[in-house]
Amino acid sequence: IRYYYASRGLGDVYKRQVLPFIPVTRPLVEEFTGLGCAFCPRGYVAMEEMNEALGDMFVGMAYHAEAYESGGMVTLPNSEFPVEVSGYPNGCINRDQMLDPSYFQEKWPVYQAEFSPASVDVSLEWAGSEGTDFDARVKVRFARPFTDGDYRISVALVADGLSNPKWRQTNAYSGESSEIYTGKWWDLFTQAGHTVTGLTFNDVVAYYRDVRGVEGSVPASMEAGDEAVYECRISKADILNIDGEEFINEKATIHAVGILLDATTGKVVNCNKSASLDYTYTGIDEVTTAGVVSTTYYDLQGLRVADPRQGIFIKVDTLSDGTTARSKVRL
Fold it and tell me: Distance between CA 216 and CA 271 in Å, rounded?
């Protein structure tokens, strides 16, 4: 595919570039929350609604704050968060301006429409046959050349399906009847008491060390079509909360999030996530049969299509084991 991309330059002169491919832009949504934060259900609902609506296009990371949670799902001190957080709930998209999670869905399409200069592909696999380590791999491919840049790759492990009967979410929305707080995710809070137990937490940051990217992971200059690959091994023994405790339950899954950062601005350029792995190791030779539980379609620019008709689309099947299968189809 060759795509002509116009960009505005000095004096409102347009420069036209020939790109070897069109990167799919996936904005990174980061939420800052805590079990003891009574208004943080806003973030919980926003993240679940976006995950449900956007499928594979949604990349989210929820950071639990030590100010509102003792141990639990807290894996980073507030001082090591990727952005400065002054209140909760809070969040950002692509590490740009801070915003209330209630605005995530409104602002996400604006960021998704921006051109990203590089694609991001991510994989996560068990290392060896012992089930003690993970191998994460992030590949970025640039659609246009650059010189003297400071791009960096960052890798996090993110967990889904976390639950613990001891975790109690403080809830300021008990009995709330406003139309704003309606839907199945809001029902978990409006129809509950002032503390809620039995919740399942997704997109939780389980392990993250290079929050601002790995220096030297991307060359300073690259040509259009060039790739940079960053690989790392993460020990399962290091996936602990801030109190040094294991907190991921047996039925949870884990995936890697790969992020391309512009170190000059600190903002996210693009990102992606890997397929999920069962956190409980079952052996690399085990074969499971998973059925399709839902199907979504995207156009070739990566935008979700609610009612695909005639044309070529990317079909994404979500399987019963939590993984996804992608294929190009003509309808």
Answer: 18
Supply angle C-alpha 154, 86, 34, rounded to 5.
75
Do 165 and 253 form a contact (C-beta atoms < 8 A)?
no
Contact 45, 126 (CB under 8 A): no
Which residue blocks in 55-145 are alpha helix, DSSP H?
104-112
Nearest to 316 by CA among 121, 272, 304, 48: 304
- Determine the Cα–Cα distance for residues 52 and 294; give it in Å rounded to an integer: 11
pLDDT tens readout for residues 265-324: 999 999 999 999 999 987 744 434 456 777 887 776 677 888 777 666 677 777 766 666
Angle between helices 41-54 and 104-112 (to 10 degrees): 40
Per-residue model confidence as pLDDT tens digits over 158-196: 999 999 999 999 999 999 999 999 999 999 999 999 999
Under 8 Å between Cβ of 235 and 165: no
Tell whether omega for the bond before 89 is within 30 degrees of 0, i.e. cis: yes
Read off the tokens for 84. Answer: 């400065």
Non-local (6+) Cβ contacts of 208 within 8 A are 61, 75, 76, 156, 157
For 29, other C-beta atoms within 10 Å of its C-beta total 29
What is the Cα gyration radius of the chain? 20
End-to-end, the C-alpha distance of the chain in Å comes to 20
| pTM for the whole structure | 0.82
CB count within 10 Å of CB 190 equals 17
